Amino acid sequence: MIVAEGLTKVYAMGRVQVRALYDVDLRIGRGEYVAILGPSGSGKSTLMHLLGCLDTPTSGRYLLDGRPVQHLGRNDLARVRNDRIGFVFQSFNLLAHATALGNVELPLIYRGTRRRQRHDRAAELLAQVGLADRLDHRPNELSGGQRQRVALARALANDPDLILADEPTGNLDTAAGDEVVNLFEQLVARGKTIIVVTHDLDIAARSRRFIRLRDGAIESDTPVSRGREGNP
Ligand SMILES: Nc1ncnc2c1ncn2[C@@H]1O[C@H](COP(=O)(O)OP(=O)(O)OP(=O)(O)O)[C@@H](O)[C@H]1O
Ligand SMILES: [Mg+2]
Fold first, then answer.
1. Which of 43, 59, 171, 196 meets the CB 3.0–4.6 Å disulfide criterion with 144?
2. pLDDT tens across 146-185, in order?
């Protein structure tokens, strides 16, 4: 599903260049459950942005389902992101003026889903993340962990094949974190591909592969043998 070759990202900060990711080769198959670990600043979020087509590499190649992403135009990229990829990022990027329900409906609006279906799907997803009684709350009327769960429900709205999560349990208490972890397991059981950046050892322990980054490079890539594994 994912093939990256020599993926490199250099941020130019005036005269200083920050090499956030350097020469990363990576293959991730459909249905894999991968945890990305590594110290702060090691390039985890940068890698997630590249894999999610939110940013382009300085050099290297990225193929998503065999298609070189650098050849896609802006509209095609937006469609790939909306239809195929669910994002849960460190900053949740929720719309401040929309309710929880409205935020989760957003990807469905882009896709042209009918109002009634949209509403039902969004309400069902919010119930799945334990927010059935918070549909009409706006982000500033929710706790950090609840916002995170709205972001997760939104990521799942279009039933994406690939879920990219950057510290999805970072702000959650243990119970809410467990809900997210259980949800991930259900998604993997349904054949979804999940790549999750995490410091949370509970999540990492339940994934099937650990990739450890250090200074923008892959330090180790360890499969956890536990049954089914995807093919690149
Ligand atoms: N937009 C940017 N412009 C310039 N430098 C950046 C930018 N984004 C990240 N960096 C730098 O690139 C390096 C990798 O950052 P990245 O956000 O990928 O780290 P991370 O592993 O996700 O860290 P954390 O665990 O703290 O979230 C860091 O040194 C960071 O300062
Ligand atoms: Mg990060």
1. 171
2. 888 899 899 999 899 999 999 887 777 777 778 778 888 8
Please give the order of strands across the beta sheet that includes 33-37: 85-88, 162-166, 193-197, 33-37, 209-214, 217-223
- Evaluate whether the domain defined by 29-58+72-223 bears CATH number 3.40.50.300: yes
Contacts of 78 (CB under 8 A, 6+ apart): none
CA of 127 to the centre of ligand 1 (A): 34
Which stretches within 96-193 are classed as H helix?
100-111, 115-128, 144-156, 174-189
40 lines ligand 1 (CB under 6 A): yes
Q: What is the position in ligand 1's atom list of the atom closest to the CA of 43?
A: 18
Q: At what angle are helices 100-111 and 115-128 packed, to 10 degrees?
A: 130
DSSP at 113 = -
The tokens describing 10, both together, are: 């250099």
Q: Which of 11, 13, 22 to mutate to test the pocket of ligand 1 (most atoms within 8 A of CB)?
A: 11
Residue-level pLDDT at 229: 47
Task: Establish whether residue 86 lines the binding site of ligand 1, counting it when its CB lies within 6 angstroms of any ligand atom.
Answer: no
Instruction: Locate the domains of the chain by residue range.
Output: 29-58+72-223
Q: What spacing in Å lies between the alpha carbon of 49 and ligand 2's midpoint?
A: 10
Q: What is the DSSP string of 177-195?
A: HHHHHHHHHHHHHTT-EEE
Write down the pTM of the prediction.
0.88
pLDDT in tens, 29-83: 999 999 999 999 999 999 999 999 988 899 999 999 888 888 888 888 888 888 8
